[in-house]
Amino acid sequence: MPTSTPKAPPPLTADSALFLDFDGTLVALAETPEAIEVPSGLVGLLTDLHDWLGGAVAIVSGRQIDMLDRFLAPLRLPSGGEHGVQRRDAQGKMREQPPPDLTLVLDVANRLAGEYPDLLVERKHAAVALHYRRAPQLESLCHRVLADLVSPWPGLELLHGKSVFEVKPAGVNKGVAIAAFMQEAPFAGRTPFFAGDDTTDETGFAAVQPMGGVAIKVGSGETLARHHLESPKAVFEWLASVLPASQQGQGNQQ
Ligand SMILES: O=P(O)(O)OC[C@H]1O[C@H](O[C@H]2O[C@H](CO)[C@@H](O)[C@H](O)[C@H]2O)[C@H](O)[C@@H](O)[C@@H]1O
Question: Is 0.90 topped by the overall pTM?
Answer without folding.
Answer: yes
